[in-house]
Each structure stands twice: as C-alpha cells, then as structure tokens.
Design goal:
Blueprint lengths: L10 E4 L3 E9 L2 E7 L9 H8 L17 E3 L1
C-alpha cells in the first residue's frame, strides 16, 4: 500500500484519467472528490463488502449523476 500525505485542495493522480482531491478536512474526517471515467466503478469498501455478502440486496451500480459527487469517508 502506498501512503501519501496531502493538504487541503491537493490532488493525487492515478494513471492519466483518475484524479483524487482533498476537499475538506475536519476533526477525524476527510472528504475527498474523485474524478474518473464513467467506466470506472467507485465504491466505498463497506458497500463492496456488503455486495459480496449474499444477504443484503443493494444497488451498487454508479450512475452518471453520482460520478462527480464528493464521497465522505
């Protein structure tokens, strides 16, 4: 695992088409923005884990209107 330090508004590039931006830092929470092509799925790990669990039924397919939203972790 690569661990990087970033300050507010700084970015990380993954390849040439995925950009991660630190949007907000507050107490113990960091908000990041992710810009990626439509064909790249972006999921929080806990949603992905629950997707693998056959019990819960959730729709994890991202839609175009979610593509440029800020995700909170």
């Amino acid at each position: 695992m690569l661990v990087l330090s970033r300050k507010l508004s700084q970015q990380i590039l993954i390849g040439s088409d995925i950009k991660i931006t630190v949007v907000k830092i507050e107490r113990n929470q960091v908000r990041i923005g992710i810009e990626a092509p439509d064909e790249v799925s972006i999921l929080r790990a806990e949603l992905f884990d629950s997707f693998l669990d056959p019990e819960p039924e959730i729709d994890v397919e991202p839609t175009a209107d979610h593509r440029d939203k800020v995700l909170s972790f």
